[in-house]
Amino acid sequence: MLNIAVIGAGAVGTSIAMSLEPTMPVTLLGRQSDVRTYYDRETETQTTVDVESLNTHQGVFDVIFIAVKTYQLAAVAPHLSRITHANTHIILAQNGYGQLDSLTDYHAYQGVVYISGEKKGQYVTHFRDRRIHVQRDSHTEQLAQQLVHSKLEFVLEDNIEQTIWYKLLVNLGINTVTALTQDTARILKRPDVYALCRQLLVEGLTVAEACGVTFPETTAEDIMQIYTGYPDDMGTSMYYDLKNKQPLEVEAIQGYIYRQSQLHQLHTPTLDCCYHDLKQ
Ligand SMILES: NC(=O)c1ccc[n+]([C@@H]2O[C@H](COP(=O)([O-])OP(=O)(O)OC[C@H]3O[C@@H](n4cnc5c(N)ncnc54)[C@H](OP(=O)(O)O)[C@@H]3O)[C@@H](O)[C@H]2O)c1
C-alpha cells in the first residue's frame, strides 16, 4: 500500500486527502497539528479531519501532493528531503507554472488542478470537481492504477504542457481583470474590460506558441465564451485574495507568462502592463 501525504490543509489539499481517504490512508500535513471540518457540498456530508504538523513529522512518503499557494512553496521545500525517499513522487496541486524549478532534486510533476473549494478558518468546503491532470509516464501510470478506486480523478496526459498552458490562459484573462478592477465576472460586460481581457488572451497565446504550445485559432474566442457563461457575481481566486488582503499568485501565472514573453523577445504590451500593475 502506498504511503501518501498531502501538504497544505486548505481547500484543495483537504479535498484531495478526503477524495483518497476511503480507499487508502493519507496523512494531511499543515503548518501545525490541527483539525479541519470538511464539508462536501456534492454529498452533503461533514467530516472531521486530523492535520499533522509538517514541521515535526518524521514519516517518509511514497507520494506527496503539495497543495499550498504557489508563494508558500518556498517554506515547504526545505522539509521535503526529510519526508521523501529516492523514489518518492511529488505532485504539485497548484495553479501556475515554473514552480518545478525549485524541486529539481525530486521526481516532481506539475499537476493541473480542477478542484473547487474554499477554506475559512478551520472549515473547508468542497464545491465540485476532484480532478488532477499529470504527465503520463511509467510512474504516473502505476500511481493511476493505485488510485483507480479512489474518488480522485487522476488524468494522465500525453502532453501536459498543453493542459498547463490552457489553464494558465484561462487564469490569465479572468483573474487579471477581476483583480485589477476589484470586481466580479460582471465586469466583462464593460466593453473596454472585455477588449482588455481578450487582448490578454491573444498575447498569452502568442507566448504559448513561442514556448512550443499551439492552440486552435478559435481559442481566445472560446475562452471568452467560457467567461461569458460565468455568473455575474462570481469572483476569481485573485479577486478574493485581493479582497481578503492575501498575497496574489501573480508570479506563477501572469509573471510566468511575462517572463516567457521576455525570454522570447515578444511584444506583449497588455500583458506587461497588467503584470506590473498586479505586482504593486
Ligand atoms: N481553491 C480552489 O478552488 C482552487 C482551484 C484550483 C486551483 N487552486 C490552486 O490550488 C493551490 C492551493 O490553493 P487553495 O485554495 O487550496 O489554498 P488554501 O485554501 O489557502 O490552502 C493552502 C494551505 O496550505 C497551508 N500552508 C501554507 N504554508 C504552509 C507550510 N509552510 N506548511 C504547511 N502548510 C502550509 C495553508 O495554511 P494556513 O491556512 O495556515 O495559511 C493552507 O491551509 C493554489 O495554487 C490555487 O491557485 C485552488
End-to-end separation: 47 Å
CATH architecture of the largest domain: 3-Layer(aba) Sandwich
* Strand residue percentage: 25-35%
Give the strand tally: 10
What is the 3D form? Answer: globular
What order do the helices and strands follow? Answer: EHEEEEHEEEEHEHHHHHH
By CATH, the superfamily of the largest domain comes out as NAD(P)-binding Rossmann-like Domain
Instruction: Specify the number of helices.
Output: 9
Tell me the helix content: 25-40%
Number of domains: 2
Bound ligands, named by name, code or SMILES: NADP nicotinamide-adenine-dinucleotide phosphate
Multimeric state of these chains? single chain
Taking the sheet with the most strands, its summary is:
10 strands, mixed
CATH topology of the largest domain: Rossmann fold
If you compute it from the alpha carbons, what radius of gyration comes out, rounded to the nearest whole angstrom? 19 Å
Low-confidence stretches: none
